[in-house]
Amino acid sequence: MREFLIDIYYFLLALEPRYKIVIFLVIALLISAAIMISIVLRERSRKNSIEARERRIKRQVEPIIQEIVFTEQDASQFKDAIKKINRIVDSTLYRRSNMNILNELILYYHRNLGGEAFTRLENLYREIGLKQIALENLRNGEWHVRAKAINDLSTMRMGETLFEILQYTDAENMHVRNEAQYAAVKLGGKKAMSFLNDLESPMSEWQQIRLLDQSRKFEYELIDHIGPWLRSKNDTVVIFALILMRHLNQYHEREQLRKLLYHRNEKVQEKAIETAIELAYSECIENLYEVYELTKNLRVKTAVLKAMGELGGSKEAGHLREVLVSGKEYELVMAAAKGLKRMGRHDVLTGYRENELSEKGENIVKHVLDDRI
Amino acid sequence: MIEYDTQNSLVDILIYIFYFITYGYTVFVMISYLILGVISVVQARKYLRRNTYTDYLNILQSPEAPSVSILAPAYNEEATIIENIRSLLSVRYPNYEVIVVNDGSRDRSLTKLIEEYQLEPVNFAVNYKIETKKVKNVYKSKDPAYNNLVVVDKENGGKSDALNAALNVSTGDYTLNIDVDCILEEDCLLKLMKPFLEETDKNMIATGGVVRIANNCRIEKGRIVEVNVPNKLLAQFQTLEYLRSFLLGRVAWGSLDGLLLISGALGVFQKQLVIQCGGYDNETIGEDMELTVRMRRYAREKGIDYVVGFVPDPLCWTEVPESWSVLRRQRNRWTRGAVETLLSHKRLFLNPFYGKIGMVSYPYWLLFEWLAPLIEAFGIVLLVLFSLLGVINISFLYLFIALIYGYTVAFTIATLYIEEITFFQYKKRRQLLRLVIAGLIEPLMFHPFVVYCAVTGNWDYFFEGKKAWGSMKRVGFSRPTDRGKRITGGGKGKKNKPNPAAPLPSNNVRTRPAT
Amino acid sequence: MSDKAKILIVDDEPLIRDALAFKLTKDGYDVDTAEDGEKAIQKIESEEYHIIISDIMMPFISGFELVKILKERGTDAPVLMLTSLNSETAVLKAFDLGADDFMTKPFSPNELSVRIKKLLKNSKK
């Protein structure tokens, strides 16, 4: 055997360099493939053992949490429960991972339960040390660890961490920033939204949707800052302010809409018109004529026609009729017809002389009058 | 060290070319795949980390969610259409409509739809922004529970025409284009819309998603309930191929914003832009790739600062052919489609005006997707020739082929490893080992076959004139599995891996694949 | 006749199912669970429940479809929708399809108890 290996060794040694390189590479590849397979298989058993551990912890902790959440407990019982949980998750090797499992479990309950159960879960979260872990992650973690920590803290309503979280609302990393903004609204309500006053980074639509969803929980309150936000240099803040106005019925800054109808950003224009409709701001109707003439953007034009249908009177009906008869673009004719229908002006929609309407116009009128669509 | 006879200058030149192909080109290909692989891993991890705390509920109940139209063209799908539409109607998204286009089916597709969903014709004013075959009727349901369903009955015009008709009827700001027979994950629309909503700097024009293989998976009521590795070896090969291509290739290209193809099986598009650039091309068999390329071109030429996104989650499941002959036809078509698109947009080639697309993506496609199989086939022919003539150093060559084989296998296993640490779909140990075995056989069996298909595809395209749908054959698109979802991108390191890239369906093949 | 009211909980999340079962058993009800709409229908066919608590977003048969099917079949038991969807459209749709009550997650377990009591009282009349 030994001689054989020596033979091979000398054989290889005698080869040209390029042979050596290729043979070396082939062997290296095969070895690395074998290593990867073994890693995959090891990974599998690791995953299995984690899952088993997770199941065990859940099985043991669940009844304790249920007991805490659903029954009246005095302080000593609560302490006992915490001790029990601590004993379950305690482990030299797996403590971190166990705490993660516990964290997800409590978060899960918290997302689904409210009322008194809510408060008890929050206490548990603090007492068991999960809040401390989240705070450490927030201070020292990588971006995704930070973002997750902020998300956890806000889900668990750890109000006392608000000030620390507020520091991150204009953070450089988009994900950290987004989570911090979301947490601010969740924990601090409309007051904490003042971070929008001088926000420089753009807010994505996704973020706006999330913040809106959170803001809707303080419905029908007055948000004083909307004024400055509408004047912000950051267009995404303006758009978000408009969305808030529209969905939270913020009538007090309606006057500002008039100016925004002429905004250089067409998305802002469109949103401003939509908001004007929602807030029944019919005072701006004269401006809408101007906007209609000034803009080339079909979406803005369509929105104007819609607004006329929603807010206008007989004068606007005349304008819509005009568009219906002579409009070229399908979208505009359609919007005009819909506007007329919305006004209840079926008389206008059907009262045409022969050949006054193009075939397209007629089809669109039929379409609009068909309530099944 | 030269071991051949130098008298013959032709053989001389051939040998030079041969050496260049085998050594230079192969090493180049290997390195490219390695780079793509590394980028993909980084990106997939980043994506997964972000998703540990993403909550889709906010958007699911938002009044501000942008409107989406799901476009589902159907031709002779009576067997499955009801089930498929049902699963489309249960997609999770707050603001969407489903537009089913019956492209002149000759079976009872329409009747079945009318009965099941209590449809009645309405006075729909179709906006023919894109010219299509005549729309006969537009139907809506009498049942308010289905008020987001629109069924369009039109004269037969092929898949592109059907998609264009759907575009004309749609009201959404975005369109989700799918193959009706695919099985979608419930939250696929939420996940595909997220990149659009998250983008703040650029104009996102389209987003593609990952297509996975459904053969042998347990499916209940239009939903995947258990993921399995296919039983048939041929489908296992394709599983590996799809994994490499979607998990490695496309994720990397997506992050580099270099995707040239959004599969017709799953993609979200900004509708306005699709219409502005003229909708789907009727004359090509690779309409999905053609559209992606044309949209990018259009956006660039109009000075729009755009981006194309990609979502690495498994979102869509499809059956792949389990018979060699169906697969051959599919790959043949894919090849023709890719060639056609590449030729009709040859302006892009190394044109700095188009940025990365012109300088990187297009040349990559040209070199790796189109020419690779040809070069490889050429190389093999030369190899056989030279061995017969005995003019080259065969022993080193065999060693080199062993290297290529080793690289291919290692790359495949690396893919399985990445799948394991990211999306982890194949949970059974035995099935994983079956994939490893398939990976060992694949370079010897599947790969040469794919090369052969690509070569014949080129032959058919250039010499048989099978360019487009062909007017006589234009009757619709074939059955699902036959269509195949395109894939491309990363691949193995065989000297030139023809990553099957190519267009969907064609009309000419109407065979039902064995499923 | 047993005076314990029977409640069926339909939710695809095991944790919620368990938690609810724990709470309602404690409140003195006879509790049964199902993990999706289809299983719920099977159970309802073989047994009579006094009240059904259902999630909306579930695989196969959603809560909406479940209510629709139950009401079409003329099941007497009131249905309470318990869901994380809190959009207006979801509420409207639920009541439109025949749901008797609607609660959103996160929900207060105590509030749920009260609502169940109320629903039971009304349905006995």
SSE arrangement:
The complex is a heterotrimer of chains A (373), B (515) and C (125).
Chain A: H1 2-14, H2 17-70, H3 75-89, H4 95-112, H5 115-127, H6 130-140, H7 143-155, H8 162-166, H9 174-192, H10 205-215, H11 226-230, H12 235-247, H13 257-260, H14 266-278, H15 285-294, H16 298-311, H17 314-326, H18 330-342, H19 346-350, H20 359-369
Chain B: H1 9-50, H2 57-60, E1 68-74, H3 81-89, E2 96-103, H4 109-117, E3 119-122, E4 135-141, E5 149-154, H5 159-169, E6 174-178, E7 183-184, H6 188-198, E8 203-213, E9 218-220, E10 223-226, H7 233-255, E11 266-270, H8 271-276, H9 287-301, E12 306-318, H10 324-344, H11 355-389, H12 394-421, H13 429-463, H14 480-483
Parallel strand pairs in B: 1-2, 1-6, 2-5, 8-12
Antiparallel strand pairs in B: 3-4, 4-5, 6-11, 7-12, 8-11, 9-10
Helix pairs in contact in B: 1-7, 1-11, 1-12, 7-12, 7-13, 9-10, 10-11, 10-13, 11-13, 12-13
Chain C: E1 6-10, H1 14-26, E2 30-34, H2 37-46, E3 51-54, H3 63-72, E4 79-83, H4 88-97, E5 101-104, H5 109-124
Parallel strand pairs in C: 1-2, 1-3, 3-4, 4-5
Helix pairs in contact in C: 2-3
Number of domains of chain C: 1
Number of strands of chain B: 12
Question: Which H/E pattern describes the elements of chain C?
Answer: EHEHEHEHEH
Q: Which bin fits the share of residues in helices of chain B?
A: 40-55%
Instruction: State mean pLDDT of chain B (0 to 100 scale).
Output: 84
Percent helix of chain C, as a range, is: 40-55%
Based on the coordinates given, report the CATH architecture of chain C.
Answer: 3-Layer(aba) Sandwich
Q: Regarding quaternary structure, how should these chains be classified?
A: heterotrimer
Based on secondary structure, the structural category of chain C is: alpha/beta
